[in-house]
Amino acid sequence: MVKRTHLRVAAAVALLVCAGIVGAAYLSRPTSAVADATGESARVAPANGTTVIATDSNTWLGRESDGPRANAELVAFGADGERRYYDDSHTRYWDVDPVEGTNATVEYLYADHLTADECGGESVCTRNGIERVNLTTGEVEGIYSRVTAGKHSTRWHDGDRLNDSTYVVADIAADRVFVVNTTTELVEWSWDAQAAFDPATTGGPYPSDWTHLNDVEVLENGLIQVSLRNHDRVVYLDRDTGLVENRTLGDGSHDVLYEQHNPDYIANPDGDDAVLVADSENNRLVEYRDDDGEWVRSWDWQDEQLQWPRDADRLPNGHTLVTDSNGNRVFELDETGDVVWSVPVAFPYEAERLGTGDESAGGPPAHELDLRNQTAGGQSAGAGGTPRSVLPNPVVNAVYYVLPRWMGVSELLVAGLALGIGLAWAVAELRWLPYRVSLTNPVSLRKRN
To answer: Residues 283, 333: contact at Cβ < 8 Å?
Structure first.
């Protein structure tokens, strides 16, 4: 009996210690994606220009849940580090682009989850839209919106302005790209991914999440660059002829791209253009240059913290602005690969540095800068697994995706340890009971001898 008492006391103490560690992390959690532990608005380090950040709330937690990942935010920090603009009125925020000819106005994609009653039916739906905001005055203007059925893999992640009246939209819900006149609200052109790919042999599950078409970019030569995330490919479209043959970046193999986000096309005056990509499931940034029609890897970078990046912009000064979604930060790399600026942000999707052009438009390619490759822990930046875990990258990223921001790897391990101790204690108490259950007919409960 004395031994059992000692074991009970040891288990209770261990559970209290585990609860203290996890509880302390929870109590110190920020209440906003851009707030400190007291809930006050954070001031970040000064930067070379205003930085606009769009965050993606976590649908696992839901908007009614506590913590920063339960709430999406659009926030801008001025060059002095002070918060310049803030809005959290939408369920999700996605792509952010500066408006040409302005120094304080951006356009962004948003998604609002609607109830079945709001949708006029029996199922939930999503309003996808484009808005424009003046960061100085706070004035918001609606550009275009449409309602799509459901909410998973139906939210538009990106759009790109073609001219004053038309917008190119990445329609993730219908696996298509379309051009809409935002004045008449008429679709003037569209491309269906089934025109080039077979749902039975490519991509993700059809029709629920086949292409996960998450990015479009209108290039200077008129082509439209498109990210087909679940195909692990970046393709190029001609509005007259469709898919441009022999131009695709990626072939479905994960060592080239693995469920990428926000590829940026970098036009090089010397002719060898490049594409900078947030190679999300590979937990790295990667760049490919055009070598006489063949895509050749020219740069890759990661560190120990980089976890499911979803945006990377090459700035005119050669630095790279990075959005690290599961790493809960936005940061800036210099040409040597060192982090020279960083802000903690819960689950950011995209970031834009105003005054540097749209995305990577004003930046030079990696091979012109002679950027050095960097891998985490001296290991390969390929698709086999992260240096932080023996598990495959998609498994690790999925775990990080559902974890609240305040729960890191240490807290997760402690919680797992507490669960193991609790189960072991429960099993031991059952074995120590002075009774036993006999699985006879009828079931009987007998006192142990």
So the answer is: no
Strand, helix or coil for residue 116? helix
Confidence category of residue 114, pLDDT binned at 50, 70, 90: very high
pLDDT at 379 over 70: no
Question: Are 265 and 360 in contact, with CB atoms under 8 Å apart?
Answer: yes
Q: How many Cβ atoms from other residues are within 10 Å of residue 412's Cβ?
A: 14
pLDDT digits (tens, 9 = 90+) for 61-81: 344 444 556 789 999 999 999
- Per-residue buried b or exposed e for 127-156, using 16+ beta carbons within 10 Å of the residue's own CB: bbbbbbbebeeeeeeebbbbebeebebbbb
381 vs 362: CA distance, rounded Å? 27
Nearest 10 degrees: Cα torsion 364, 368, 370, 373: 60
Tokens representing 398 are 């999925």
Residues 6 or more apart in contact with residue 171 via CB below 8 angstroms: 156, 177, 178, 190, 213
Residue 166 near residue 188 (C-beta atoms within 8 A): yes
Contact 163, 145 (CB under 8 A): no
The per-residue pLDDT for range 129-155, each reduced to its tens digit, is: 999 999 999 999 999 999 999 988 999
> What is the DSSP secondary structure assignment for residue 374, as one 8-state letter?
B
Alpha helices by DSSP H, listed for 208-333, are none
CA–CA dist 345, 54 (Å, integer): 10
Q: What is the band of 113 on the pLDDT scale with cuts at 50, 70, 90?
A: very high
